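Milestone M4 deliverable, item 7.
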Amino acid sequence: MSDTPVKQQNTAAFYGQAVASFAVALAATAIGIFNLRADAWVRGFLGIAVLYLVTAAFTLAKVIRDRQEAGQLVSRVDQARLEKLLAEHDPFEKL
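Output delivered:
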């Protein structure tokens, strides 16, 4: 018999909190860069750096998620092979 793991899902409140905190952090950083007393090229450089950091963070999160999902898939395939071997094995069969 196979025990299929229950797929974990985030609640709507957790998702909303994550989106809101990301938006607040990005807005606060943008406001801080805009109000910075520096030349326009310095503010532009900091703005581009923040955007690059955000895209790198999203890419890293996706890579980590993909690796975890691939590990779960390999584990499930191995589990299915083991269950098939155990189901086909007859302990009373003569060798």
